[in-house]
Structures are given as C-alpha cells and as structure tokens.
Write a structure and sequence with these properties.
This protein is an alpha/beta fold. It contains 6 helices and 9 strands. Strands 2, 3, 5, 6, 7, 8 and 9 form a 7-stranded mixed β-sheet that branches. Strand 5 and strand 6 form a beta hairpin.
Length: 245
C-alpha cells in the first residue's frame, strides 16, 4: 500500500497562528537530526484510537475515514459498543495493539500502558529509541511527563514545558505528521470494517489484530519515506496542514 493516500482524512482542529512556526521548527529539527543515518530507526510513534462495532473510528484530533473511497455506505449506530486501542510504530516494527478495558483513557491508565506494556518491549529491541506521543490531555499530565523525564531523558517527543527534559516538542494539532494518523488508523479501518460487520467486541478485536498482522516491514519503510516527504512539505507550505493541499 502506498502511504500518503490521505485525501479522505478530515481534520477537525484548525491550526492557530502560533502553530505554523512550531510545525516548521519541528520539521527543521527532525530533518537535521536525521542527517545522522542511525536517527531514522530511533523514533517510536504512539497513539490511541477508538473502534466502534458500527464502523466509526474516533481520534482525539481527527476522524479517520480510511485510505480508499468506500464502496459500501455504512450507517453508524449512535453510541455503539467500542474498544480503545493503543499501539506504537517504528520504521521496522508495529507493536501490536493494546486493548484498554476502561471506557476512557485517563492519565493513570495511559501511564500504566506505556510503563508496564510498551516500555519493556521497546527496551528489549533498543537502548536508544526516542518515544513520541501527541498532545492529548492524558499525555500532558504531570505524572506522565515526570515519568518520561526520569525514564527517557532527552529521548521523548511530546507536548512539553520549559522544565521538561524532552528530545523536542511535538507541534500542536499535527496528526498529519505522525504515521499512526496519516497511515495506520486508515489502513486498519479499511481491513477491519469489511461487511458483514463485526457483531461483538471479541470479533472486532480479532479483526483488529489480523489487520495489524498484515502490516509488513516494507510498508513501514514506505511510511517512513512518506514522513520525511511530509517534513519537506511543512517547510514549503510554511507550516500548513498537509491534508489541505
């Protein structure tokens, strides 16, 4: 699959005036960092999404409609059964989904996920990775940032304050710059929501796991090339959202 077929991604958070410069600063810093050939393998991007049995996929910053124009119109049920999914993605590996049993992801739930489930996996693969999270409210809590400052000094990307010991700050309202949003969630939706629709949460989880398993290393390499291209586009457009081009 070609990464970047994102014309069906509808952003619901408009950039503020101060966001443009922050996006350009992030793009510049990341591209300068990637002049080191080993840098491309270091970032680990993470994200959460909510999958409904009805076929709706919710994101904090965007709504994913998939990467292809739908051949079937799916009528969404109001407040249908759902499952929260957390995952992480690198240039070589997709860290399989964590299904959160809570109805909402709080800062405590999120901290447990990354500390108990994700970090041990990342540590077993590398001692030099850089962990990325977006600016969603659970990620901004003092507890989460304190943990990252102590656990990964100079090795995390996210919404941060002056006292934080991060690698760099994640630009606000920028789902178009993370592989989870511009590739992964749409790719999964295309494969999970194939009629007949799942009837139970367990069936939905099985479909999600099967979709995750279909992502190949070559696809991830293509996604990373797309990400570098997007950093270039941020410069050309002076920080504009890529999906609006």
């Amino acid at each position: 699959m070609k990464a970047g077929k994102v014309d069906l991604l509808l952003l619901v958070q408009q950039l503020k005036q101060e966001d443009y410069g922050k996006r350009m600063n992030y793009a510049t810093f990341m591209q300068e960092s990637m002049e080191d050939e080993t840098m491309a393998e270091r970032p680990i991007f993470s994200d959460e999404s909510t999958f409904h049995i009805s076929g709706k996929v919710n994101r904090y910053n965007s709504r994913m409609w998939g990467t292809e124009k739908p051949s079937t119109v799916i009528e969404h049920e109001y407040d249908s059964a759902k499952v929260n999914v957390f995952c992480a993605i690198s240039s070589r590996k997709l860290y399989s989904p964590f299904f959160c049993s809570e109805r909402s992801v709080t800062s405590n739930v999120y901290l447990d996920m990354i500390e108990v489930w994700l970090m041990p996996q990342l540590d077993s693969d590398s001692t030099d990775y850089i962990f990325q999270q977006d600016g969603a409210p659970p990620h901004w809590s003092t507890e989460v940032r304190t943990f990252l400052n102590q656990r990964l000094p100079k090795r995390w990307i996210g919404r941060s304050g002056d006292a934080d010991d991060d690698f760099c700050s994640w630009p606000p309202r920028s789902p178009d710059l993370t592989p989870c949003d511009f590739f992964l969630w749409g790719y999964l939706k295309d494969r999970v929501y194939v009629p007949p629709m799942p009837k139970t949460i367990e069936e939905l989880k099985v479909r999600i796991c099967n979709a995750f398993a279909s992502v190949t290393e070559q696809m991830l390499q293509n996604v990373w090339r797309e990400m570098d291209y997007r950093l270039d586009i941020v410069h050309v457009t002076k920080g504009s959202h890529i999906e609006h081009l």
